[in-house]
Each structure stands twice: as structure tokens, then as C-alpha cells.
Amino acid sequence: MGERRRMKTRYRRFSYLSDLAGIKSSIGEMKGIGHPKQPPLNKDYRPGEDDPVLDEEWFINRIKGQLPNHPDNIMEYPFYGQPIFDAPLVGFIRGDDPILTDYKKIIGPHHYTPQEIMKWQADKNGVPAPSAEDLSVVSIIMPITRKTKEDNAAEKDWVSERWAQTRLLGEIFSQKFVREIVTYLMERGVLAIAPDVTPMFNKKRYPVVGWASPWSHRHMAYAAGLGSFGMHDFFITEKGCAHRAASFVVNLTLEPNRQRSDDIHANCLHYQGIKCLKCAARCPVDAITEADAHDKERCMKRVEASTKYVNKNFHIFIYGCGICATGTPCESGIPEKLQKKA
Ligand code: SF4
Ligand code: SF4
């Protein structure tokens, strides 16, 4: 059943009141409250002979092997049983990678380093806080399915139903999926933490960057070499920009498996001097322009306004848009013209 009661054959009634899991998830995303308890660290765990080695291969196999067929990776009515996400991408960042402290300047001083986040978990469990070089971040990209992308690409004004469901159920699923790995590691005596399900996580408006959270999954994905940013601020990977990103911190040393580009816009046609701006043309409120790139404030207003539309039409409690991330050359992969150039 998962984190919420699955709607197999009908919509819920009075969804502004009855979609409790949706309301909880939305508040959790904005305010960092209402998440399940952190799993405790099993300090007495002694590794057995048959225990797997928790290396890069283990994480890749576990994530790629379990995610596509996970019982909670499913939509609900009227798409009940269809998957939310396709096979993921996985990357690693060393905890002492200088980019993680640079993010305090690039994103803002509010953005946590893995060490700061892990200190909270260590203190909570009464163990010494690990140093940065003993930590790693595991970054995951969960691509949205073709059907969902097609539905959103067909929309011009408001989010499609599949995309809205993916926003809500995908968030609940991704947090659960990561929590299962974190719980497994903590039971094995390895400190681990998913920053976005701690009380430190809340979205705020900051003077320089506007709306931002203190832990950016997408910046972790960039650091892990999984892609780069587009004009629309979505993160363009080899599977495109229509996806959900997740990340968590572990007290293990995992080596990066991908080469990071120095150019944070390497996969965007416009930034690479090739005519495009399809994302700008798709935005119903002109929140993307050649002069100012992505206007986060204008975008946020539109996205917030979508809650009413989604609730009325799709009977779930969530906001969303993603119109500019679909029907574009970067939707499902690195734009072909850039692949040819490379
Ligand atoms: S649609 Fe074009 S300009 Fe916009 S982010 Fe994608 S590649 Fe860049
Ligand atoms: S997500 Fe924001 S920028 Fe993109 S289409 Fe919607 S309102 Fe415009």
C-alpha cells in the first residue's frame, strides 16, 4: 500500500480535505515537518561473512535493480498500476569535494554541506561526527515516463494529470525509496541521512537566489556529473530534464563514477550558442526570457496557482507545471545538436 492509500478505481471526494498524504507531503516539502522518524543507528552491529561490500557497485545495483519494479513506483486512478519512473541514473560525490563548500557561495550560506547534515545525524545517535573525507553523497535521477512527458507536452496552460500525479506520488515514492536504503545502512551500523526529510529542510525566499532550499538534489546531481542546467533551471541529463532528483549522505567513501562538466549549462542549446529557447516559448506566463533567463518569482506564482486547478480537476493536493520541461529538445535527453557537436 505504501505511504498513502492507493486510489484504484475512483477519485477521492473533497480532496482539499481528504488528500491528507498530499497535504502532508506538500507541507513537508516546504516546511520540513511531518516526515517519518529517522531510523536509529545500530551501534552494536558486527558485520557477518555474508554481508555485501557497500561499495559503488552495491549502490548502483541496489538502486537500478529495485527502483523500476518497486511496488510503490506506481500511479493511482485513472492510471493505476502504471509506473511513475523509468530506470534511474546514479552518481557519487566525495564528501570533501570542494564544490560542496563552494555551494555556500554559489547557492547561498544556507545550503548545507554533507558534513553539516551528517553532524545532526551523528549527534542524534550519540556518535562522533565524521569528517568530510569520510562521507559521500549518492545522487539519483529518476526519469519520468514517456506517457507522462507526452501528456504534459500536449498541454499549453496548466499541468497534465499524469505530471501532477508524478509530482505528488513521485515525491512520496522517492522519499520512501531513499529511506529504505538509509534504514538498511543504519541497521548495518553505517551513518546515513536523507537531508530533505529532516527538520532542517525548508524552502525560503533568499535575497540573491530567490526561492531555494537548504539542500539541492539537482546541485548534487551536477556535482556528481549527471548533467547540467538549462535556461528553465531544470537539470538536463542523458535522460533529459523531465525527472525527479534525489540524494542522500553516507559515512562511506564512494568514488565518483562520472566526469563533471565545468560548464553548468553544457547541455542547454541556448547557452551553447545554438538557437532554441523552446522552453521560453512553452511557458504560459513568460517566466523565461532571453534577457533574464528563468524568473523564479514569476514561475513560483504560476506554480502555486496550479494547486487550485490540480485539486479541482485531478482531486489531489499538489502544485506543479513542468510545461517548459516537456515538448522541448532537452526533454528526454541531451539535445541532438549538442550530441553531434560533442
Ligand atoms: S528548451 Fe532549449 S533553451 Fe530551453 S533549456 Fe532546453 S535546450 Fe536550453
Ligand atoms: S515551470 Fe515555471 S517557467 Fe516552466 S512553464 Fe511553468 S511557470 Fe513557466
Name the features.
alpha+beta, 342 residues, two-stranded antiparallel sheet
Number of strands: 10
Instruction: State mean pLDDT (0 to 100 scale).
Output: 92
The SS-based structural class is alpha+beta
Structural domain count: 1
Radius of gyration: 20 Å
Spans of at least 5 consecutive residues whose pLDDT stays below 50 are: none
Order of helices and strands: HHHEHHEHHEEEHEEEHEEHH
Bound small molecules, deduplicated: iron/sulfur cluster
**How many helices in DSSP terms?**
11
Percent helix range: 25-40%
What is the overall silhouette?
globular
Sheet of most strands: 4 strands, antiparallel
Distance between the termini: 45 Å
Strand content: 5-15%
Strand order of the largest sheet: 1-2-8-3
Description:
Helix content is 35%, strand content 11%. It has 342 residues and is an alpha+beta fold. It has one domain. It has a 4-stranded antiparallel β-sheet, with helices on both faces. The chain has a two-stranded antiparallel ribbon with strand order 4-5. The longest helix has 27 residues. The chain is globular, with a radius of gyration of 20 Å. The site of one iron/sulfur cluster has 13 residues, from helix 10.
Short description:
This protein has 342 residues and is of the alpha+beta class. The protein has eleven helices and ten strands. 35% of the residues lie in helices and 11% in strands.
Secondary-structure blueprint of this entry?
Blueprint: H1 15-18, H2 20-31, H3 56-66, E1 89-94, H4 98-106, H5 114-124, E2 136-143, H6 146-153, H7 161-187, E3 192-193, E4 204-206, E5 210-212, H8 217-223, E6 228-229, E7 235-236, E8 243-250, H9 278-282, E9 288-289, E10 293-294, H10 296-314, H11 336-341
Helix pairs in contact: 6-7
The protein binds iron/sulfur cluster (2 copies).
